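@channel sequence for tomorrow's demo:
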Amino acid sequence: MEDTGRHVNWHTIEAALEDFRSVRRRTIEMMTPLSQGQLDWPPSERKWSAGEVLDHLVLVEATHQANIGELIELQRNGERTVLKRTFSDINTAPPLIPKQILPMFDVPFTLFTMMMPRKIHSMLMQYQIIPFQAADSITPVKGKAASELKHALESSIRRTASILESNSDLDFTLLVLKHPALGANNVGQLLGVMANHERRHQTQIEDILRRFQKKS
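structure tokens (generated this afternoon):
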């Protein structure tokens, strides 16, 4: 432990958190000048609007905040700090696989992500090479007000930072979340997953706005 009370590995979390913060700042900068009409416009009946994408980002972060909070509690209680989630818990679905049969794919996907190099997995998170269906728990709500979305994005990243900073004495490299689609990630890596996921959706928002301008 350092004299500050922070764990010697805290610097890795601090760096990952700052990267995530910078990504979130860009997201907020992107959405700030948009009208409610721009936020609410979907490029097609089955595609999300920019506002729905933003709401999705908040929901994803809330899910990971809960996971990190549970891992912290396990660590504080002296228990094993590995949290296993399955497709039954978070039913994000690859294309062509009905969600009702997803639990059958827990083991194959777990083995697949175990063998995949982390750089490749990070690239898949940042670029939508394989379009996954969003899990039910992180499917957004249509038509949220711009002010509500902006407040949620700002307060959510503050909450993530607060959770981590108030537990900076812990070794977050030992706190691991496992999911068949995400693989095994400690908290620092999970911050990277969230940052890359948000970068991908920033590209999606840019594409939606280009289509909106052409339509207009």
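heads up for whoever presents: Strands lie at 82-84, 176-179, 183-186.
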